[in-house]
Specification:
The chain folds into 3 domains: about 130 residues, 2-Layer Sandwich (GMP Synthetase, Chain A, domain 3), CATH 3.30.300.160; about 130 residues, 2-Layer Sandwich (Beta-Lactamase); about 200 residues, P-loop containing nucleotide triphosphate hydrolases (Rossmann fold, 3-Layer(aba) Sandwich). About 40% of the residues lie in helices and about 25% in strands. The chain is built from 24 helices and 18 strands. The protein is globular, with a radius of gyration of 25 Å.
């Protein structure tokens, strides 16, 4: 353990990182199965990086953010990958002064002794966060194709073993590459494997055609579906164990012209980076959302198309709201991430456990906070609104293109304007766009004339100023980002608090144009504008903003 809760509490008080009243409140309300550091980070009271930085000062150790360093694979391999993974440590530099070892727990003296004996050099310890270590571990990997070729050439492996090993290989590499999906697609002369990373599909591997059906059969066996059925779609699920994680893999198999195609959706049991500070919210929008979380009842809605990160945003809110004083219950399809202390229900249509029926049952469980995975129909909408009206805080998602559109959509589902104006607290619309890779980011100068081809001059002036040339950034492409120039994703948002004036307008009707005019007057930032701000900050590119917003430009 890096630091005990007691010592961390003293450090926070000594450095005045939190008021004594707030600190005592957090200590009293935190769950027994969660450390104080995790509680503070989850509730976004003190960022984990700040806590580690302060701990480093106390221990008189340097603190490092590894992505700001030049990563050399030869240095990394001083420490074997398995050891680096299990000990949360990496060797990130080596010079005449010795070895630079970054780790999360400096009490691990045996590790530095082992490295010193291996290299004959002194070891200097740096403190870093677990998140930084996880970002560096992928540097160990060899190319997937190279690893597969080595497996196929290994004559010592039996006939059945390679197929099991190949499937394991695909899942492990997809997980390490942060892929959300694996596609295995039969073609005339080969089988193509593609990973969806940061929302985009990338070719990952070519399999020999004769292995395709054997790989499909292996996946069918793992997901407990019919191995002799090849003419109709089938769905299944695989529970897959990794060293420090558990994956729920949704399996979909359909017949296509050249055989059977498989799509695997990877759902990790761990919550990957779903806290508000990492999603990309501006300070102003973050404050609006935090204010809405302080209300004991009402509705918080996250809107956007499939794959826009709606559920991730709701999970981030649930982590903040989740404490021992509240009964938090969810009904989801599927349960994507497990949250300790939260009662999570899986929709089961075969058992007639629908969103509407499940929500009705939840209301008899004395809940304080309810998350409905999606409002899909009139019945679910009605129950959710009534739950919010009767003293519950209800969170849910909705498929609309923008924040303003959520209000007319609920009215179309039969929710009365008066009830809607009384219950809606805030609406968050979002899209996900790719971030520029930090390792190959480079500045570029763009003329205002070029920007004006896709952006209004008023908006250019507002976001980028009046200079003829604007300094932006792009990724040139490197091994880290698979030559795409992008690594990771962040959200662009428009956050619409339901204010007193908006409630009055809703009582008169739900004209989207009037709602939008009022929202803009009251300071709402559109997703397109929020995206351009992130372009100015060097986080993404104008091309990426235009790709994900399209008709939402204003």
């Amino acid at each position: 353990m890096l630091i005990s809760d007691y010592d961390l509490q003293k450090l926070i008080a000594r450095q005045k990182l939190l008021s004594s009243e707030k600190l005592n409140e957090v200590v009293a309300s935190k769950r027994e199965d969660q450390s104080l550091m995790d509680t503070l980070a989850d509730r976004e009271l003190i960022p984990r990086e700040k806590l580690y930085s302060e701990i480093a000062k106390e221990l008189k150790l340097p603190f490092t953010r590894l992505l700001k360093s030049d990563i050399n694979e030869d240095f990394l391999r001083i420490l074997p990958e398995k050891v680096a993974h299990s000990q949360e440590a990496v060797v990130f530099k080596r010079d005449k002064d010795g070895i630079g070892l970054a780790l999360c727990d400096p009490s691990n003296a045996e590790l530095s002794v082992m490295i010193s004996k291996k290299t004959g050099q002194a070891v200097k310890i740096y403190l870093t966060t677990p998140e930084e270590i996880k970002k560096i571990l992928p540097y160990y990997r060899e190319s997937l194709q190279k690893t597969l070729d080595a497996i196929l050439k290994d004559k010592t492996i039996g006939f059945e073993a390679p197929i099991a090993k190949i499937v394991d290989l695909l899942i492990n590499y997809a997980y390490r590459d942060r892929a959300s999906d694996i596609h295995i697609e039969p073609e005339e002369n080969k089988s193509l494997v593609r990973f969806r990373i940061d929302g985009m599909l990338h070719d990952a591997l070519s399999l020999p055609k004769d292995l395709h059906q054997r790989v499909i059969t292996r996946i069918k066996v793992l997901s407990k579906i019919q191995t002799d059925e090849h003419q109709k779609p089938q769905d299944g699920k695989i529970r897959y164990s990794l060293e420090d994680d558990l994956l729920d893999i949704r399996v979909s198999i359909i017949p296509v012209a050249d055989g059977e195609k498989v799509a695997l959706r990877l759902l990790t049991s761990k919550a990957r980076e779903y806290d508000l500070s990492s999603l990309g919210l501006s300070d102003a929008d973050l404050k609006k959302i935090q204010n809405s979380l302080g209300k004991p009842y009402g509705m918080i809605l996250s809107t956007g198309p499939t794959g826009s990160g709606k559920t991730t945003s709701i999970y981030a809110l649930l982590k903040i709201l989740n404490d021992r004083d509240r009964n938090v219950t969810t009904i989801e399809d599927p349960v994507e991430y497990r949250i300790k202390g939260v009662n999570q229900i899986q929709v089961n249509n075969k058992a007639n456990l629908t969103f509407a029926n499940g929500l009705a049952s939840i209301l008899r469980q004395d809940p304080d906070i309810i998350f409905v995975g999606e409002i899909r129909d009139n019945q679910t909408a009605a129950i959710a609104v009534n739950a919010a009206l009767t003293g519950h805080l209800v969170l849910s998602t909705l498929h609309t293109s923008d924040a303003v559109g959520a209000l007319p959509r609920l009215v179309d589902m039969g929710v009365e304007e008066l009830l809607l104006s009384s219950t809606a607290n805030i609406i968050i619309a979002q899209r996900l766009l790719r971030k520029i890779c930090d390792q190959c980011k480079t500045p570029v100068l763009i003329s205002s004339e070029d920007l004006a081809k896709n952006i209004s001059k008023n908006l250019i002036k507002k976001i980028f100023g009046t200079a003829n040339k604007v300094k932006l950034h792009k990724g040139t492409g490197c091994a880290t980002c698979h030559e795409t120039g992008y690594l990771g994703r962040l959200g662009i948002f428009e956050v619409l608090p339901v204010t007193k004036k908006l409630r009055q307008l809703l009582n008169k009707g739900t004209d989207a144009d009037q709602i939008l005019d009022l929202a803009l007057k009251e300071g709402m930032t559109t997703m397109f504008e929020d995206g351009l701000v992130k372009v100015r900050m060097g986080l993404t590119t104008t091309e990426e903003v235009l790709r994900v917003t399209k008709s939402e430009q204003i």
